[in-house]
Amino acid sequence: MPRPVYIVDGARTPFIKARGKPGPFTPVDLAVQCGRPLLLRQPFPVKAIDLVILGCVNVIADEMNPARVAGLRLGLSDETPAFTVQINCGSGMQSLDTAFRYIERGTADIVMAGGAEALSHSPLVLQRGAVDWFAELNRARSPGERLKVFSKLKLNHLKPYVGLERGLTDPITELNMGQTAEILAHLFGISRREADAYAAESHNRLDHATREGWLKGEMLPMVARDGQVFDHDDGVRPGSTVKSLSKLKPAFERPYGKVTPGNASQITDGASWLILASEEAVSQHGLTPLARIVDSDWGGLDPSIMGLGPVTSVAPILRRQEMAVADVDLWELNEAFATQVLSCVAALDQPDIADGVLGLDGRGGRIERDKLNVDGGAIACGHPVGTSGNRITLHLANTLKRLGKKRGIATQCIGGGLGGAMLLEAA
Ligand SMILES: CC(=O)CC(=O)SCCNC(=O)CCNC(=O)[C@H](O)C(C)(C)COP(=O)(O)OP(=O)(O)OC[C@H]1O[C@@H](n2cnc3c(N)ncnc32)[C@H](O)[C@@H]1OP(=O)(O)O
User: Fold this and answer.
1) Where would you find the membrane-spanning parts of this chain (predicted)?
2) Which of 12, 190, 281, 389 has the fewest CB atoms lying closer than 10 Å?
């Protein structure tokens, strides 16, 4: 019999904008800054943690298997296994899904599952020509040979191959993520105005939630080595309006594209952890569950419309649980792009897709805006890719509790043509 699995606590860091150079924290720094205060407020000893799983897309060379490095830096036992998972933007959700399955089948009782990403530390890799040139230089034995190799150095060898740009480009279609969001805007007829209105609302909702103190306990401050304190998401722009956003130029398809820096998710650094526990661990340590993970799934689709990943991953859950879109009280649908979120909403509401393609048998429908990303999302706070799936699930669990709602779905699109979804029920 599958065992019930509970989310008992969680926290995230503030998300910090990547400003064209490495920020103050590596992925492991972020995971440690977030994990330390989270562990300190737990009633159980760290040795009760059976497993650490961390999602991270851009692993840096000094921190191979960041889950293990973070686990040890957090003071966990040498004997606590730790592994890192990578499924692009789904990595932070994959860590949860894996933890869910470990606990469900009885191989673990308490798992720390997180996501950590420092997009500002994305690698600048040398061009192939430059790598060959360095290899030749290393092989040169005499000053004369070295001089000969030096004479072959070309200026374009110094041009780096930018890991972040490539990481946000689909390797099969060669479309970058922004272009896939443009395709969706075209397919679903999403206007620039609709995208900007959605984006402005995201900023204003997150600003409101922060000022109301709804992120207290969820977002924990961090301190850099130089003493600088980070205690808020620095990308949020309160007072955003359609008018202010309408001034921005398209970022990916000029001049007529709909996706701009204002209605796309921001490139940021940040980490998030959830603590998942079995029923036995809950009663043994006197834990208070926030929510129960009821179900989860993944879906695949054409990479050029990867933004519809939520639709393909939510559908099998709705079918299995015999639920309709309207039965879900709260949705956290990761805001990769405004046009992408709005396309997912439109797709689930279109009978030819909901019934014809997804087999929802009349259970499709419109996700109402007052149930969707109620406290804003990645357009406002940013999208540290390997972290976001974790953050939205954490926020969903906290919001179900705060609003006294029953069921919620956290879902996201994943580059490469995938989607991930988790169904939570208030505990
Ligand atoms: C990968 C997966 O597996 C699946 C997925 O999730 S796909 C999504 C993955 N993520 C992405 O693709 C990232 C998408 N975003 C981007 O690529 C970049 O944000 C972008 C190219 C769209 C813009 O990059 P940028 O120019 O560096 O943006 P940014 O610095 O935020 O903004 C530039 C300027 O626009 C203006 N601006 C941005 N947002 C604004 C707003 N809300 N209101 C007013 N002005 C704004 C400002 O003038 C800003 O400059 P300052 O910050 O100095 O004020």
Assistant:
1) none
2) 281
